[in-house]
Structures
1.
Amino acid sequence: MQERSYHHGNLRTALLEEAERSVVAHGAAALSLREIARAIGVSHTAPRRHFPDRTALLDALAQRGFDTLALRLTEAISAAGPTFEERLRAVAHTYVGYAEGRMPLVELMYASKHGAETLAAPGAARAAYAIPYAVIEEAAGAGELAGGLTPQAAARLVFAAVHGLAVLLSTGMIASDDTPDVVDAAVDGLLGGLRP
């Protein structure tokens, strides 16, 4: 096999991109370092330059997923209007849009989130969650949450709604051509329960 030439740093990116394609198509359990190497045209030992084993590759892939989600959430919130409703809608649409079609990767991300603290994914997960949590905490500080509802409780409710919606859309239980309307309806319901 003729090994492709990669500039410094590009091999790691290529491995992660191919690993993501593989996980989305076949699930994390089917991921093979040897198959990833073959798919991008490098020797079967090349991945070990960046990932000593399959677990390290999966952790890096989960971290990358959380980093990408965090970036998209940050951009969406920055582009949204200043109100809690506008920012909550941005969070919901962004999360569902990210998860839809990538559910095997999202499942890997959440499995890795509970990994050992020596792994990178748990820290990346906390950083990603902190972004929508800040929106909810700010709303609580402004008196926009129902009395007795803590930011933590509100954040759990929001996450349960948007993640559940993403699962229903990804499994076909809700038609994906209705995604924007379904997300907006869910946010309307959330706002009804969250506001004073």
Note: The radius of gyration is 19 Å.
2.
Amino acid sequence: MPPEGTLPVAYGEVQVRVLNATDRRGLAGQTADALTARGFAVAAVGNATSSVVGPARISFGAPGVGAAYTLAAHLEGARLTLDERTDATVDLALGSEFVGLLDPGLIPLDPNAPSRAARAACLSTRPR
């Protein structure tokens, strides 16, 4: 869960790198296009250096906590991983069970209310 009082971040302020951790060609590009259409700032698209079991892994540093949980609200079953990065960028690595973003009508974000990320499980700090 995010720290107490964490607020969602405006989509345009979420700098996300979309990475394909599967053998499905074009998955990162298609997902980046969908995120851009929702207003997210896609910083890069590419391939992950390791595989991801499950739908997705969102990696972020302490400055990116709000951005990570804002992005996680758009994904079913994403695993969140805090790492040592010192900026607010967020990496979205798409895994073998990724089927797409949630319907925008199902995203209950209010920029003035603390974030609740029931769909995501936060993991301990791991090296990047």
Note: Strands lie at 15-20, 41-47, 56-60, 79-82, 90-94, 121-123.
3.
Amino acid sequence: MHADEQVCGLNPDSQFVELAVEVFGMLADATRVRIILALRNADELSVNHLADIVDKSPTAVSQHLAKLRMGRIVNTRQEGQRVFYRLENEHASQLVSDAIFQAEHALGGTPRHHHKEND
């Protein structure tokens, strides 16, 4: 394969399929999904604030954040002793949103995300 050739990432034979599986594996944890949901509407949050939101210990949240950071899903900013986390981009948030929407479909009926805002 030539380095200058662009392969569509959405083709079944894409070189990105295995990496996508790794992303799904990274997100296959309820605490990590909750962290991403908490960060999607915030510019950035500290470990302690995230721990309060997801109802886990700061140590546990810090371990999950380290994995998310290694997977380039979150990024950090340090201010003195405090570290603040933010989503690296909108894609993890969109993946989690879509997974939640799919879960709503699994319950049957018309999922909440299909209702008009004025209803």
Note: The beta strands are 45-46, 74-79, 82-87.
